Protein: Secreted protein
Amino acid sequence: MNPALRPSRLSAVLLVLCAGFSASALAHNPMCECKAIDAEQIKCTGGFSDGSGAPGVTLDVIGYDETILVPGKLGADSTLTFKKPGAEFYVLFDAGPGHVVEIDQADIEAP
Structure:
C-alpha cells in the first residue's frame, strides 16, 4: 500500500475535506429582514450569511389560511416592498431546500 494513503492519513484527509464542506455550507445560511416603512408599506431584504445578496429569490406574503396574498421575487437590490395586507400574514423567503426563512407579521419592525 502506498504510504501516502495509509488508513490514518486517508482518514485525516477525509476529515479535513468534510470539515471544509461543512464550513462552506454553514457560511451560506439564508437571512431575511422585514421592516414597516410606514403604516401601509413593508420592505423586506433577503440574502445569505456570507454577505451575498438574493436577487430573484422568491419572497411570498402568505395568509394564515395558506393563500398567497402577494407573490413576489426579490429585485436586483435583494429587496421587495409591498402593501401590508389587511389579513393576518407571514413572509416566506424561499431560496430552495434548506434555505427557507419565515417571518410572522408580529415580528416585523414598526416604522
Q: What stands out?
A: Residues 4-26 have pLDDT under 50 and may be disordered. The radius of gyration is 20 Å.
